[in-house]
Amino acid sequence: MLSLIGLPGSGKSTVGRQLARRLQWPFFDSDRLIEERLGCSIREFFESEGEQRFRDIEASVIDELTQQPQGVLSTGGGAVLRPENRQHLQQRTRVVYLRSSPDELFRRLRHDKNRPLLQVADPLGRLRDLYAQRHPLYEQVAHCTVDTGRPSVSALVRSILQQLGLTPVQPLQEPPNPLNSRA
Fold this sequence. Notes:
Number of domains: 1
CATH architecture: 3-Layer(aba) Sandwich
Order of helices and strands: EHEHHHEHEHHEHH
Mean pLDDT: 89
Structural class: alpha/beta
CATH topology: Rossmann fold
Strand order of the largest sheet: 2-3-1-4-5
Number of strands: 5
Shape: globular
Radius of gyration: 15 Å
Low-confidence stretches: 174-178
Number of helices: 9
CATH class: Alpha Beta
């Protein structure tokens, strides 16, 4: 099992889907599974129930998904906040930290209205605060780190496969890079 961690917008879902395709493994997106179970968006749940209740549900989903025998797991950006999540991720999976600077993330996310933690007056400041808080936790949990910067999704996938010594099953196809195409 392989898990991707990082701040919101670092490419966990996009890169995770490509990794899963290349390895012919199942892909799991913890945020999507949570939304399916809740029957509403994470943003709506945050607004009605609060972050702590969301984190409780997220911890249950992370525990469940990290027990899968094989797959690529894209986690929510705050999954590392709970000690039990960090333990499950590190002990049960190979963890890749997709590291992105707050400025790069702001460029990608400045028009995104679906991320509850960024619906504030100063989203760049919020991203800088999140980075300061979460970066040490990401580093603590990660087995390897990949800087997202401006490489293509395919280049990031190749780097991850190489660092982890994994051999892809599917040949590489260069799709458009959604991480750099957001205006």
